[in-house]
Amino acid sequence: MIDVLRREFVYVWYYFEVQLRQIAGYWVLGMVVGSLVSVFAKDAIHGAFDRIRDKKWGVWGVIPASLLGVASPLCMYGTIPIAASFSRNGMRDDWLAAFMMSSVLLNPQLIMYSTALGTTALVIRIVSCTICGIVAGLVLHVFYKDKPFFNFEGFEPRASHDTNPNLLLRFLFNLGRNIKATGGYFLLGVLLSALFQRYVPADGFAELFGKSNEGFGVLMAATIGVPLYACGGGTIPLIREWLALGMSMGSASAFMITGPATKITNLGALKIVLGMKRFLLYLGFVMLFSLLTGWVVNLFV
After folding, report:
1. pLDDT tens digits, residue range 232-282?
2. In sequence order, what are the residues at sequence separation of 6 or more whose Cβ sits closer than 8 angstroms to the Cβ of residue 83?
3. Are the CB atoms for 221 and 252 separated by under 8 Å?
4. Burial grade of 39 (CB within 10 A; 0-12, 13-18, 19 or more)
5. Whole-prediction pTM value?
6. Contacts (Cβ under 8 Å, ≥6 apart) of 49
7. Which residues of 119-148 are buried (b: 16+ CB within 10 A; e: fewer)?
8. Where are the domains of the chain?
């Protein structure tokens, strides 16, 4: 028994080490770029969004709003106080919805992580997350045009941690916080991908999540994105391994939308801002959009 356990440990450690060597560089790159954007470009990005408030773009303002949401380095808990400030300054709800939706789904750090998945997956992730923000804004414009959607009462902008007058130290402190926040999840993701590689039959996985079963596979991928997603960086090794095992790009796309959109900490913040009825509408929108995205991607990729 001990010999069997020792042998299995050696196998898993081998897969873990191989996965770590293959993907660690992308994780480091993501953290460095994320910290650079957070320290040196965050205020410029949010300032650009604030400045479009008075533009006469009408509903089409959801497009630049969604793009700026992707560029924003903040997580949901950081985005909501900023969005509350924008709202108090007169920002339209449909533009805010586009900004917040795309900001939840993607940020510069996660874009760098996602390069590990290959060019096709990276482009699909950027495009689908941007479109999701745009569509969220359009839906809000149609159904809540004359009614308030958000309740930001009690949310105030948080004090920035990036205040050190020395720019290098400011960057290093931010990088250290990034490592602390994501390092454990990243290593857990690598471990889970090693376990998948060792114990999950590729044929069975491909049959469940591959193109031959694309309808149910996309639905399953969208559904497991809800409980499995904890951290963007931590899921990259898993998605990479799933694609290698035969998961269709559509199923992976669905997972990459429902995962961050239903991350438990994000849901807690959104429940406060939206209230129960609009919160349920949000969940329905996310699931429907992820399913449609997965099916469309499978048609063309």
Report:
1. 667 888 888 888 888 899 999 998 998 888 877 777 778 888 889 999 999
2. 91, 96, 99, 100, 150, 152
3. yes
4. buried
5. 0.88
6. 64, 65, 68, 72, 86, 91, 99
7. eebbebbbebbbebbbbbbbbbbeebeeee
8. 12-155+162-300
